[in-house]
Specification:
The chain is α+β, with helices and mostly antiparallel strands. The chain has four helices and twelve strands. A six-stranded mixed β-sheet has the order 3-5-7-8-9-10. A two-stranded antiparallel ribbon has the order 1-2. Strands 4-6 form a two-stranded parallel ribbon. The longest helix has 16 residues. The two termini are 20 Å apart.
Length: 212
């Protein structure tokens, strides 16, 4: 995701237009916001996340971020089985105070309930993918993966640019159920091949990205 701003108890987030002077966020509860607030608070910006009870607002996407998601979505759906669905930028409820929005999620097909659905439970997610943005690097690399692992999501991909040409690189992680932490199982540059959560083969070369 893009850059973040955390909603303070009595401040209007700077993500709001300056002309909206009268708009004020309500003072959050002592323990912070909860998942339910994401659907009940008025006028939240699109793609607002909840991290440790704080509201997090995303910055405008960079082209690499957007096109890399498109590339992976196409590749993941090419070999998708009927057991799974692939979703872009959907909220995942990890617990009452944490509801991030992975760039891509692979979920169980039976978890998709209809067009008005707004979130998935962590137990319904098989794979979470984050494309690193410079202005949210710490969350993409550290905060979110730790929380995904603690919630039991079995697979995680971290996508970023590498080398002098900025070609895509995907680090693939698998959950250790004992330690509830991720261990890297592969680093992919031109083609991403995996047998979990299903057989996947995605062209992630710079040439494939530039064709989008």
């Amino acid at each position: 995701m893009g850059g973040i701003m955390t909603a303070e108890p009595s401040a209007r987030p700077s993500a709001q237009p300056d002309t909206d002077i009268g708009s004020r966020w309500p003072v959050p509860p002592q323990d912070g916001y909860t998942v339910d607030d994401l659907t009940t608070l008025p006028d939240l910006p699109p793609h607002t996340e909840l991290i440790d009870g704080s509201l997090v607002f995303v910055s405008p996407q960079r082209d690499f971020h957007s096109t890399m998601i498109d590339l992976l979505m196409t590749g993941l759906r090419r070999t998708l089985t009927t057991e799974f669905k692939v979703r872009r930028e959907m909220t995942v409820e990890l617990d009452r105070r944490n509801a991030p929005e992975p760039d891509i999620s692979v979920v169980r097909a039976d978890a998709v309930t209809g067009p008005d659905q707004t979130r998935f439970l962590a137990s319904e997610v098989l794979l979470a993918v984050e494309v690193v943005s410079p202005d949210s690097e710490a969350r993409d690399r550290d905060t979110k993966p730790r929380k995904y692992a603690a919630a039991g999501i079995p697979h995680f991909w971290l996508v970023e640019r590498a080398g002098s040409d900025g070609h895509p690189m995907v680090r693939v992680y698998e959950l250790d159920p004992v330690t509830k932490s991720y261990a890297v199982t592969g680093i992919h540059h031109d083609e991403l091949k995996s047998s979990v959560p299903y057989d996947i083969a995605v062209d992630i070369s710079l040439e494939a990205l530039r064709e989008l």
